[in-house]
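Late entry, written up from scratch paper. The run itself happened at the end of the previous shift, but nothing got recorded in the book at the time, so transcribing now.
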Amino acid sequence: MVRKKESCMFAIIHEIRRNWVLYLLVSIPLAVLIIFQYIPMYGVQIAFRDYQPVRGILGSPWVGLKYVRKFLGSYQFINILKNTLSVSLYSMATFPLALVLALMLNYLPFNRYRKVIQMVSYAPYFLSTVVMASLTIQFMDAKTGLFNIVLGLFGVEPVNYMAKPEYFYSIYIWTGVWQSVGYGSIIYIATLSGISQELHEAAIMDGAHIIHRIWYIDIPGVLPTFCILLIMRAGSIMSVDFERIYLLQNNLNKSVSEVISTYVYKQGLQGTIPQYSYAAAIGLFTSIINLVLLIIVNGVTKKLSGESLW
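Output as recorded:
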């Protein structure tokens, strides 16, 4: 038994010495993951304590699920949850658009036009969130906004869209689509390029149209990638993009734009007395819900398509 352990240890040391460069490359992202993702989990217990910075984490009194119950019993809870789910589900409905764009580019006959369209569709992704939100607010301005100017040419009266709660979800989602759909299509374009051209040639010889080739060759080819991305997207349903929604938020649309992430920020940092424990409890609550949804969607996807994260 001792000899087996020694031989196993010797084999491990020999493997590390032989491929030390590869292990060094792996160790860097692994160290980053441990330092910034796992070590901070020690602070999760703040959610179960009445945290006071002077006393520290261990010195603060243990209160259990006090702050989770406080959030669930808050008069704002239902509205915040509804807003968060509305934004997330609306965003999920636009999730396949990146795949649609990739399929359109894949069948575009002119290579030069394809490159131009790709460049134009990728460009908005590299705009900062602050610039993106500022452009959106300027475009939607009632007096000088480009959107109202164009509609005015067709006799439509100008509207301050950012002040209308009923338009907020559409503004938030479709500006996000404009910014990210091109970049999101890259992974699908890469997957489509890996599909054997012999299948397309055989389909063309059999008289298949483009729609048939997309349905019977391309869709099955990208389905594993689509399922994995869908599962990962489902695991963040309760985590709405904080920065952009916070920058687009104002007092007039706050009734529909106040989501969990903005509520946590305001309760944890913006109040007269920062409520660190309350904010941590809400964050932990949403993380657990996201984990449960991830497991459920992963199981359903695995049963229906055979593809899953694990």
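DSSP finds 17 helices and no strands in the chain.
(Scratch paper discarded after transcription.)
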